[in-house]
Every structure is written in structure tokens, then in C-alpha cells.
Amino acid sequence: xxxxxxxxxxxxxxxxxxxxxxxxxxxxxxxxxxxxxxxxxxxxxxxxxxxxxxxxxxxxxxxxxxxxxxxxxxxxxxxxxxxxxxxxxxxxxxxxxxxxxxxxxxxxxxxxxxxxxxxxxxxxxxxxxxxxxxxxxxxxxxxxxxxxxxxxxxxxxxxxxxxxxxxxxxxxxxxxxxxxxxxxxxxxxxxxxxxxxxxxxx
Length: 202
Fold this sequence. Notes:
Rossmann fold; single chain; 8-stranded mixed beta sheet; alpha/beta
């Protein structure tokens, strides 16, 4: 593993879980792919070819520099560009909370992909609950923005996400809850700051 890849996984431990759930040679779509680092890593480590979807100009340029295939699209408009079952795996990493039309996007992910991997910061973490109890919007390593500048529009807890999956008929195959890069098994909705889910249609 290159120093750049080690740095990526150290900064974003949820991506290590994402990477381990992507099969070798899988066709991948990364939604909100940023600079394309994850896709580049998946190609190098798993020989998994992929496409990224990104809206920000600077990130699209960074993807090109990273030699990553990228499409500049707004996720809010859906994934109608892609046919059913085009991908083996569709990834939505640290982007769920910024989406307005959450239900539509989750359905679309499992239309165009055989499975979906979703990661997000957990609003149910004890530190976030404590800040709300004292009358403030949470700010933390997992939630680094002040209320007036945050791109987050739909924060959720593990319980909220799992309820939504049940309502949409989405089957949760695997779950990993993390705090500071370490797996959390006890009281995950209280002690975990990040969650990663691998999901399929029922």
C-alpha cells in the first residue's frame, strides 16, 4: 500500500470497510466521489473498475488528475443516466446526510447496482446528544461544521437509517460502527460516531 493510500485510510477509516466489501473485479459507482481517491485505491487494491459522480468543479478536476473516470452530475436529479444493474456495487460515502431526496437516491442505488455501501456520521453519538442537551448544535470530528455553514441537511442515527431501510424494503447485509477508527460493538448507536452499511434489495 502506498503512503497516499495509507494516509487515505487513516483519515477515513470507514473507507477501509468500504474497500473490504468490494469484491475483486467488481464494477463500482462512487457517488459524491470527491477527488476520486477511493476509486483509485479500489482499482489498485481490488482491480475494481469504476466511475465517480461529483458536482463540485474542483473535485472533478482532481478526479481527472487522479486518472479516475468521473461524471459531473447532481445526485438530487437521480441516476437515470445508468441502466438497471449496471454496477456490482454503488457507494455513497459520507454523503447521505447532504442529500435532500434520500429515499429516491437509495432506491436508485439499488436499481443500478447489485448492492449499496453507505457510510455516514452518527447523530446519535453521545457527544452529539450531550451538545444538543445543552442547547447547541453538535460540532465534532465527525460533524465538523457550524450550523450556519454545514452542507448537512438530513442528519440521522443508526436507528433512523435502519428504520428507513425497513420501510423501503432494503436488506442490511453487514454493518460496521466506528469511533476514532475502532470498531464499536457495545451500544453502537450511543458510542459510535460513524456507521458503514452494506445493503441489497430484499
